[in-house]
Amino acid sequence: MLFxxxxxxxVTVIERAITMRRHAGQVAFPGGAMEPTDPTIIDAALRExxxxxxxxxxxxxVIGELPAAWVAASNFDVTxxxxxxxxxxxxxxxxxxxxxxxxxxxxxRLVDPAARVRSRHPGGYVGPAFLAGELFIWGFTAHxxxxxxxxxxxxxxxxxxxxxxxxDRFLRD
Length: 173
Known about the structure:
alpha+beta; Nucleoside Triphosphate Pyrophosphohydrolase
């Protein structure tokens, strides 16, 4: 997860390319699997950020890792890495086969109670979600974002009784 170190920090998210086999068009954080050439999880995260959004790893100050979590929908163990950078360069879909768009979202807008809801999947899953303009952030990405905002002390109270169905366009995988 990439945050800027500005007075009103931003977090970087991607929209996965609509041609992806899994989670097409969904909002996610830059990242992916370790490769044999990655000495550490942090190295893998920095490499993925460069491959997906064009961010030079030398611009990132790594804060650390969150505890590993298993993502049932993907059958992956994920170790989130949190990094901070100055926001001085424009990020872009460096690999359009994987990334449809890159968004830099202001934390102040994400913690606005009006942007917070819970999402409901037809399979029974209910969890945190964020409404960010045209973006619907839900699932594992929303869980990570919710946790990071809490850990950073940025979270604000919101009405968790508001439940929104996951949009149909995300239900194909």
